[in-house]
Amino acid sequence: MKHVKLETPSPAREMARIKTLRVGVALLISSLVLLVYQAVTLRTSLTEDANMIAEMVADNTAAPLMFDDKPAAGEVLHSLSKVPYVETVAVFKSNGALFARYAKPGLTERERGEATLEHARMHAGPWSLTDVIVESEVQVKGKAIGEVVLVATTDAVVAQLLHYGAFLSAASLVAIWVAFAVTSRMGARVAQAEKELEYLASTDPLTGLPNRRAFYDELDRRLHRPSYVGTRLALVLVDLDDFKTVNDTLGHGAGDELLTRVATALRQAVRSTDVVSRIGGDEFAVLVEINEDKSEGHLAAMRIARALARPFNLQRSSIVASASVGVSVFPDDAREVAALVSSADMALYAAKGRGKNTAVEFHPNMTVEARRRARLESELRKAIEMDALDLVYQPQFDCKTGALVGAEALVRWEHPADGTVSPAEFIPIAEDSDLIVALGQWVLSRACRDAAHWNEVSATRIHVAVNVSARQLRQSEFDHQVKAVLSESGLDSQLLELELTESQLMANMDAGIDSMNRLRASGVRLSLDDFGTGYSSLSYLQSFPVNSLKIDRSFVHPLPDAGQPIVTAIISMAHSFGIAVVAEGVEHAAQLAWLAESGCDIVQGFLTGRPMPFEQLMKLLGDDATKPRVLSDAGMSPKTLAE
Ligand code: C2E
Ligand code: CA
Ligand code: CA
Q1: 62 to each of 14, 58, 87, 387, 641, how far by Cα in Å?
Q2: Cα 191 from chain centroid?
């Protein structure tokens, strides 16, 4: 499988370059400042020295000037040949005429120039870059008799500055090189760390597959890549069936192992150019490139479903896995990432609804259904808040005595615009969100209140059966909530029966069992609903503290002509565990007769009573108390009970 990598340009080297440039500019500026400072310092000290010498010359030529002794003056001046920077020294008389003069050998005519005092002065300036020219008056007893003009060369200063500059440049170059080396090495490390972080951020650590984010980035990239124009892509969403059960029953180690094995199986089921990703706990996504027909997408989805529907041999156990698969195709079903994903999601939802181990392709109708679901969800939320739901009760009868023994509470929703919405439609919607908790709580308290009420008027004790969803059971407070509702309503805990399905119990092994045991201890009865449709494993009955099981109506339906062996087996097995048997969906007298004959304890169905409003049930109670009847009696239509 090609691992999806996000293309991020490494800015490390660029950063190093920029940083080095900054260091270079800073060094250049400081070097220039230092050089200027050095130049000023050197020139100032040269000027001071030159002034001192000029003063000394002025002192020593005062006498020769006074006595017009030129050789003596010449000697004084000549002694300056030992001072290297003195270029020329001239002594002028007070009238400006040249008296004596010394010039360093080897000067050009222009350099030796200053023949007159004015000429000499013209060159003098405090910041003349070339030579330093100083003057000193020759005085005798405070009276000026002449002028000394000394020209000192700055050659030495310039040479020194050049040296200094060369040193600074060399030092700066070394500094820049070090700075570059350090920053680029640091940059490389940062880039490496960034790469690792990027890998971690885009990879699922368990399976090594690209994670959700990386997958959607890749999907986005592929949908918008110009070279993909004309190609089709199938987005396949995979959801493992009952993964939670594996985790709960075999432990998280086995769960992780299964996920890893599934990841490998998925990779083997597709080409290396296709992308496999783990996008959630037990959810995977596969991006399959297809060549021609849209139907190839469905084929790919089926291939993927088949690849997972097989036993996986884990270290300590073997698991038969299966998955629900939904697929949508670009560009046929959608052209944008979000729409493509939601199409595949809708197809997956449909696959889950159709039972396990199926692959379903997206159909535009699904959008309509999904919109309806979304609308119903928000309207159901309001209906719960506004107390707009209702309960009906379906009576349950003792098979032998025909006596009314209980009633199952079934929720009803009279939608203002859509009319009656079936719980078969809105309960799954509520179960997909947190709504089921509020709904279940509402049903529970209303049912307990109603049951408390009817037990006040009834001569016999009549229980109420309430359906409980997995999410409710998973609430840590569930048993407390039930007890609170019981004490609030005043209903005897033994008159409350909670109906749970096998799959709910399986999915809540850890959390559920404790909660159920506590409920059982407080007298609440538990019933296993829809028995036979789930795991149908009678051995689980031993682990769960249930009082009764309800044979699903799909088993009752073929009776009495077919299907008797399985129902007989269920009844005898349940009885051997001390569990009562309720048959639901009883529609025909012949079914009822067979069930009563076969030892079934309780019946519930359209034959003996349809779900009815509370008032009607109250009426039935009154009748039942005065006229006990035996349901299996020939000639007596049990239907009359509900009418
Ligand atoms: P269920 O718990 O299996 O409830 C029995 C369903 O079978 C009811 O459908 C009932 O009207 C129907 N039924 C009863 N007798 C017969 C019969 O003789 N023949 C046939 N064909 N059907 C019969 P209903 O009321 O539409 O409820 C459907 C499902 O909705 C229920 O199945 C239950 O799973 C769920 N449900 C209903 N009320 C609640 C509730 O308050 N909470 C929860 N969590 N789920 C509920
Ligand atoms: Ca039920
Ligand atoms: Ca049922």
Answers
A1: 71, 6, 21, 125, 152
A2: 23
| Cβ contacts of 605 within 8 Å, gap of 6 or more | 553, 556, 583, 584, 585, 586, 587, 591, 592
What mean pLDDT is reported for the chain? 86
List, as ranges, residues with CB under 5 A of the ion ligand 2: 467, 499, 529
CA dihedral sign, ordered 399, 403, 405, 406: positive
**Pairwise pLDDT comparison (588 vs 97), residue with the higher score:** 588
Q: Which CATH number fits domain 11-158: 3.20.20.140, 3.30.450.20, 3.30.70.360, 1.10.10.10?
A: 3.30.450.20
Nearest to 238 by CA among 340, 331, 322: 322
How, if at all, do strands 283-290 and 275-278 pair? antiparallel
- Give the distance (Å) from ligand 1 centre to CA of residue 440: 14
Q: What's residue 126's pLDDT? A: 46
CA 131 to chain centre: 75
Q: What is the CATH number of domain 375-642?
A: 3.20.20.450
**d(Cα 148, Cα 150) in Å, to the nearest integer?**
6
Q: Identify the band that residue 632 occupies on the pLDDT scale cut at 50, 70 and 90.
A: very low
Mutate to test the pocket of ligand 1, among 384, 414, 420, 427 (most ligand atoms within 8 A of CB): 427
Q: Which ligand is nearest to the CA of 587?
A: 1
- Written as one letter, the residue type at 258 is L
Ligand nearest to the backbone CA of 423: 1
CA of 553 to the centre of ligand 3 (A): 7
What's the distance, Cα to Cα, between the start and end of the chain in Å?
66
Instruction: Give the model's pLDDT for residue 4.
Output: 44
Region(s) of the chain under CATH 3.30.70.270: 212-362
* Residue owning the nearest CA to atom 15 of ligand 1: 605
Considering only CA atoms, which residue is closest to atom 42 of ligand 1? 467
3-class DSSP state for residue 143? strand
* CA 408–ligand 2 middle distance (angstroms): 7
CATH of domain 212-362: 3.30.70.270
Q: What is the CA radius of gyration of the chain?
A: 51
Distance 202 CA to ligand 3 centre (A): 45
| Range with the largest mean pLDDT of 342-346, 353-357, 540-544 | 342-346
